[in-house]
């Protein structure tokens, strides 16, 4: 998914060894209405269509307590992205920005994140609104909204 010839004006790519250092464990898959990248929103909206986070059964008990949150954070693997661009031209107009100054799916580790509205949980499937990824995108992680979350671990001494 990287092609040095397939660049927009002034974009810059680097040649990389195939990535093999970190091993992530996908915990399920995301079901959305979008089959083609051109149809996906650039960023999800909380009033967007209902999507599903379908967890592998082994993780169902890991959802205990999540129903207390209206908003949750979802991390996913943008598996169809190239990963070698260091400068990108979002508008294809010759103006480029560094990859780390963008939320483009094209990045060395194509992790997408969205804050989504948790509509309901049906067994191991979470119904949410606010996603922007293709149908079948691998699911990496789910966390409560950091603003609504109160740490459940004891306070740490001498840490401010
Ligand atoms: N909300 C996430 C973030 O900010 O980290 C992702 C934003 S990214 C701009 C969303 C775009 O990624 C979509 O509009 C679509 O073009 C692209 N995309 C969605 N699913 C993808 C996938 N599985 N692989 C590669 N690109 C994907």
From TrEMBL:
<dbReference type="Pfam" id="PF01980">
    <property type="entry name" value="TrmO_N"/>
</dbReference>
<dbReference type="InterPro" id="IPR023370">
    <property type="entry name" value="TrmO-like_N"/>
</dbReference>
<dbReference type="InterPro" id="IPR036414">
    <property type="entry name" value="YaeB_N_sf"/>
</dbReference>
<protein>
    <recommendedName>
        <fullName>TsaA-like domain-containing protein</fullName>
    </recommendedName>
</protein>
<dbReference type="InterPro" id="IPR040372">
    <property type="entry name" value="YaeB-like"/>
</dbReference>
<keyword id="KW-0949">S-adenosyl-L-methionine</keyword>
<comment type="similarity">
    <text>Belongs to the tRNA methyltransferase O family.</text>
</comment>
<dbReference type="InterPro" id="IPR036413">
    <property type="entry name" value="YaeB-like_sf"/>
</dbReference>
<feature type="domain" description="TsaA-like">
    <location>
        <begin position="24"/>
        <end position="154"/>
    </location>
</feature>
